[in-house]
Amino acid sequence: DIHVLDLSEPKEYFSELVNLKHARLHGSKILLEYDSSSDLGIVDKFFMEGIAYAEKCVLFTSKSSNLYRAIKGKELIKTVAASSLVSVPDELPDGEVQIPDRELGLVTSIASDLLENNKTTAVRFVFDSITELIRGDHWEQLYSGVKQLVELLSVQHATAIFLVNRDTFDPKFLGALRAIFSVQMKLSSLGLQITKLSSS
Question: Taking the complete model, does pTM exceed 0.90, yes or no?
Answer without folding.
Answer: yes
